[in-house]
Design brief:
By secondary structure, the chain is mainly alpha-helical. It contains 15 helices and 2 strands.
């Protein structure tokens, strides 16, 4: 290379239009690319069905359907950032719902009051919290790989729920008051309470991850656990807390599920873990840890929801919907990986 080359590069750079720093940061953000995919889907379906897609009813339905999975996704985001995984979220949701339902059945059933609702809610939250903490202890202290721990937890929690109920969804398991208020009620008559709860949980734990020491420790452990230990972070205790958190949010998801559907749906959560993990990864989180955000998870959660709703409106048959959703998800993740490789190689 001659001495004139750097000078030539500087002259070419000087001729290029200046890109504002905020625009370069926005283009480099994972969330911006994922949001671009979401915006393209919305634009496509709006153009294809301008009078029927993205109506007020559609927006409400999409947000309501995504609310429960979003709560699970927030917890999963923390776990994936610490380079872990949790395959048990659906089963923990079922077990929490079953124990909560059993209390309701023996304390008023469908006619139970707010006192029984409060206790059954605490039972659901405590079940998820304890189960998650136990799994976290096995990962952090017993050094069992997270995949094995949570795969075992997936089967054990579902099995326990089936033993308790005999494999059948119990009748009279949900208070009518809970369904009328949280399940079908709306804040100011406009916003479903399920969406409000999901938004509150997302906002709180998104801020915790982004701006608190707990969040910084989470990223540090996911990036370099040994380095985190050397700077004084109690990695084992933090891992237990993270797995307890995803368990707690699974318990919250169970209360939301009972309120909306009015049943424990023992056989209906076998793929919850895949849906949630897909959304978190689609939102920019790395399965190798150290990278991810709650905002990205929110966007990643809405992509399959918008796609599914749009295809239904267009009259696409169910099996073709599954094919289309799978193709778009793989394409979106591949695009993001391609962009990252290009960025890493300068």
């Amino acid at each position: 290379m001659t001495a004139e080359a750097p000078a030539k590069d500087r002259r070419q750079s000087a001729r290029r239009p200046a890109v504002p720093p905020w625009l370069r940061r926005l283009a480099a953000a994972n969330e911006a690319w994922t949001f671009g995919v979401l915006a393209l889907l919305v634009a496509f379906f709006t153009a294809a069905r301008p009078s029927t897609f993205l109506t007020r009813y559609d927006i409400t339905q999409i947000a309501t359907n995504a609310a429960i999975y979003l709560v699970l996704g927030v917890g999963m985001t923390y776990v994936i950032i610490v380079a872990g995984i949790d395959l048990s979220v659906g089963s923990v949701l079922v077990l929490s719902a079953v124990l909560s339902a059993e209390y309701t059945i023996h304390h008023g059933g469908a006619n139970s009051g707010w006192g029984a609702i409060a206790v059954s809610t605490l039972i659901a939250l405590a079940t998820g919290l304890v189960w998650g903490a136990l799994q976290g202890w096995l990962v952090a202290k017993a050094r069992v790989p997270p995949l094995i721990v949570t795969l075992g937890g997936f089967g054990a929690a579902l099995g326990a729920a089936q033993i308790i109920t005999g494999g059948q969804d119990p009748a009279g398991a949900v208070s009518g008051r809970l369904q009328r208020t949280i399940g079908f009620g709306k804040l100011f008559g406009q916003i479903p309470w399920l969406v409000v709860i999901a938004f509150g949980a997302t906002l709180v734990f998104g801020l915790v991850l982004a701006f608190t020491r707990f969040g910084r420790y989470t990223y540090a452990i996911g990036s370099n656990p040994e380095g985190a230990r050397r700077v004084g972070i109690n990695v084992d205790a933090h891992l237990i807390k993270v797995y307890a958190l995803v368990g707690l949010l699974s318990g919250l998801g169970s209360v939301m599920w009972l309120a909306y559907f009015g049943t424990t749906s023992i056989a209906g959560h076998s793929t919850d873990n895949l849906k949630v993990i897909t959304a978190v990864v689609l939102g920019g989180a790395s399965l190798f840890g150290g990278r991810g955000s709650v905002l990205g998870t929110v966007i990643g959660m809405f992509i399959p929801a918008v796609l599914s709703t749009g295809l239904i409106i267009m009259g696409v048959q169910q099996y073709w919907q599954d094919v289309a959703i799978g193709v778009v998800l793989v394409a979106a993740v591949h695009l993001d990986q391609f962009r990252r490789r290009g960025r890493d190689h300068g």
